[in-house]
Amino acid sequence: MSSPLEGRTALVTGAGSGIGEAVAVALGAAGVRVALLGRRRGPLAAVRDRITAAGGVAIDVPGDVRDYAQMAGAVDAVVASLGPLDILVANAAVADVGPVAEADPALYRDVIETNVLGVMHGIRAVLPAMVASQSGHIVVVASVSGRITYVGEPAYIASKHATVAFTDSLRQEVAEHGVRVTAIEPGLVETPLIHVYPGALDMVPGVIPLDPSDVARAVLFALEQPPAVNVAEIVLRPTMQVL
Length: 243
Hints:
Elements: E1 9-13, H1 18-29, E2 33-38, H2 41-53, E3 57-62, H3 68-82, E4 87-90, H4 105-133, E5 137-141, H5 154-174, E6 180-186, H6 212-223, E7 233-236
Parallel strand pairs: 1-2, 1-4, 2-3, 4-5, 5-6, 6-7
Helix pairs in contact: 1-2, 1-6, 3-4, 4-5
């Protein structure tokens, strides 16, 4: 059976690895034309080649979500190459680990600019056309860290709380225009992000992380609903993860 997404066009940020890669590959397999955005050309090209080798359509568009001008230019490039955007998956994110008293202020800035402003920039770049067409779907990959608090990732937690709040505010604003908005909030996922900082996994002893493909299935579930159905929020955790 063909997917109801076949023939649509999507932009996925942070598409070079982890959840972004898994979502992009899943979209490509569903017949979606996929634009891959990220800061590193090599990983983007590898994901592009993986999708096209399987018979899909994909292009890589290097760019930095922290820079609105780059995001706007990337959206223009995607539309020129693949056609109007139907889907945005705002996924790019970075994290911090450690006590506040020892934090690197430069890392704090990177976390907030990437995880919060990066989401806002991507949405701002695609939204006018979606509102004008009275259609489109924006998926924001947030985190269960946007619903709870704990010790160890203070800037990341703050950024995801902001992202969840912004996403639901957006949903309320654009509902009348036929634009759907979904927040995906995974718990621990086996991605490069959880291996950047030694000891990060010690915060959740014994938990077997989700696979990125688990999150990708949740994204496709939301996207494949009929136009009159908006899945506003999906929270998914590893079975053994309590928080």
